Amino acid sequence: MNASPDRPPAVILAGGRSSRMGSDKAALLLGGRPLLSRIIDRLAPQAAGVGINSNIIARLDFAPGIAVFADTVPGHAGPMAGVLSAMRHAAACFPAASHVVTVPTDTPFVPRDLVERFQRALTEPAQIAVACSAGIMHPVSALWPISLADELEHWLPTDEKRRVRSFIESHSMAAVDFPLIDTTEGSVDPFFNINTPADLETAERWLPLIEDMER
């Protein structure tokens, strides 16, 4: 498959341990639908294709056409291992693509103009575009040059904490600010992430308000 210049591939990173949730976050239901399904629906119109990086999931019954692939490095090496896998997947399956988008599996309200705004922010081919909102960086939600794959693979064993921010800040970066989502009951961060059962309850409350606002 070939990515058009204005539609890079996207990968949802679902390779974490979900320790604070107590169960696999990728299997959660939000509003009666799989969390992954909701994120796919938001990303698919923006991307040349959507894949899932997971060390647990083998396939998606609700989306059989979606590619699922594990980390390319062993040992649950953190989100940057997922980013590396996303780069390798994009290079293999979308040879025309120069970049790949990643988002975490626990952000159900990811902006519908994420890719467009990332790409508008780029000023050079090797730049990383990173999402920000309300003054906070969301480093796993980013547009990555695929050309960084070999460098990232060599970096992973050298950074003890494998911090996403550390790798990003050692490169040219474009911080892309996204506005909060205004609803009838207050504002919601578009990168609100579900880490705990309490967060899932909060997302359930926000979901119908956001859906009403987007209609």
Main β-sheet: number of strands, strand sense, barrel status? 7 strands, mixed
| Anisotropy-based shape | globular
Count of helical stretches = 6
Give the N-terminus to C-terminus distance in angstroms: 32 Å
Order of strands side by side in the largest beta sheet? 5-4-1-6-8-7-9
- Radius of gyration (CA) equals 16 Å
Q: Please bin the fraction of helical residues.
A: 25-40%
Average predicted confidence as pLDDT: 89
Give the number of DSSP strands.
11
List low-pLDDT spans. 18-22
Strand residue percentage: 15-25%
Which series of helices and strands comes N to C?
Answer: EEEHEEHEHEEHHEEEH
List keywords for this structure.
7-stranded mixed sheet; two-stranded antiparallel ribbon; alpha/beta; 6 helices
Write the SSE topology.
Blueprint (H helix, E strand, L loop, with lengths): L9 E4 L15 E2 L2 E2 H9 L6 E4 L13 E3 L9 H15 L5 E6 L9 H8 L6 E6 L2 E10 L3 H7 L8 H6 L3 E5 L3 E3 L2 E3 L8 H18 L1
Parallel strand pairs: 1-4, 1-6, 4-5, 7-9
Antiparallel strand pairs: 2-3, 6-8, 7-8, 10-11
